[in-house]
Amino acid sequence: MTLRSLILEMRSRPHRVVHDLAAAAAAADSTPGSSQDYRWSDIPEELLREILIRVEAADGGGWPSRRSVVACAGVCRGWRLLVNETVAVPEISSKLTFPISLKQPGPRDSLVQCFIKRNRITQSYHLYLGLTNSLTDDGKFLLAACKLKHTTCTDYIISLRSDDMSRRSQAYVGKVRSNFLGTKFTVFDGNLLPSTGAAKLRKSRSSNPAKVSPKVPLGSYPVAHITYELNVLGSRGPRKMQCVMDTIPTNAMESQGVASEPSEFPFLGTRSTFSRSQSKPLRCSSSHLKETPLVLSNKTPRWHEQLRCWCLNFHGRVTVASVKNFQLVAAAAASGGGGTGLSPERQNERIILQFGKVGKDMFTMDYGYPISAFQAFAICLSSFETRIACE
Amino acid sequence: MSSSKKSSDGKSSEIEEAVASLTMPFNKILLTSSDGESFEIDEAVARKFQIIAHMIEDDCAGKAIPIDNVTGDILSKIIEYAKKHVVEPDEDEDEEAKKKLDSWDAKFVEKLDLETIFKIILAANYLNFEGLLGFASQTVADYIKDKTPEEVREIFNIENDFTPEEEEAIRKENAWTFNG
User: Fold this and answer.
1) Where in this chain does the record put each F-box domain (chain A) (predicted)?
2) pLDDT tens digit string along A309-325?
């Protein structure tokens, strides 16, 4: 056969050429995976990551689509690890994802907008994440609290479930205890210590190798102390509020500061590898913190001469005047706030928690770094309970 | 990319390659799948596969390129997509064209089962075809949206390897997640 006839023969063949069966079979055997069953569990990690990143980004990363992210973390261990690597903590993403997000500090440059619904009949409060700008829309349920009166004090039990308020339940998150007069409150965190089982889920090459403490019985640890006082004008003026955050050092307010954050609930395997703090158990009394604890105080309203009332600028988030309304800022940096690069006034100005009434039993709650949703909710509950300056 | 020599009808593939260089129009490239299917495509289309684009740049692409890791059925789908996406319309400048292409994409993927999409993802990754890889990944993400963990496991045939304690904890986590 001449070269010319060979070329003519090649040209006359249709474009899609299938070689003879023997060659095809040989080819099939030599190429891996071509004749095997496909298995999603065998997908290379970086490709699964691409998929999970897109799951997280659905609808701007908000709820209710965000449910899918948590669902993926519940599929199998491999997926759970990848999801934990993909999802950033609220401080960075401004997004709440897992229940543990409720105990992690909020974002530095913005506030997470939530609302609280009060039920006077059951004496309970429900915290929701706001999903839209309209307060008539449903939010994402975050926490529930209910009041428990004792002889000398009152407790607000905080739970992940509105139908399960038992302190022994795994849904129990913490409580706020008020003294008899309703002037001093202590916030207790119900579950701070990681269990060994969850730690095994961490990869060995994680940047934050697990420092696992042996299984320790759960306790309730004080994490904040809140006090209310009348101001110099007595009941005619706005009350003074002070919150000592036992688990947050004052230097958390600096640009490089870190608010200590819990790594996980006892029953969860989630651990954010973005957490910069070690997983030390949060045994919380101010003596344990090397730094002085952060103190928050309420911003003093200005007296509006023409309107004859005390005014705070809530930027539209509070619409009904109430003595319960407040804005919390870091207390004046008397204890050496230098090094932040911010002037004392500016440092003081940044709102960390804002709470106020918008309807008969509706309140907004906006919080940001360095406090968490749980701490914010607990502080707001104290505002409901205190009787200071209520006539 | 390895160039395995397959023989067919007693002729060596070296001759085939040489013949292809002589007989193929200037800007055409011949791709051959792992199971022997050949596809003649424009160079512009072939360049959507970065792995081939680099070969062309480095001047080591012959006119016939074996794609050892991809079977013919998958390769044909990938080429079909690549042909449609040779020129990506600018959303701002030509909204109409973008809409038409999006509609074509939706129909394209509608007909594919999950197994095929899985294979397309692996192949697009191998060929380094970013556009299709992103699109296929998004398609899978859409499958997952709003599903429970059990449903995801079912669809993707994934084994639940949590311990009973972990499973219980995750169930409680999901109770909060799917509650309101």
Assistant:
1) 40-84
2) 778 889 889 998 888 89
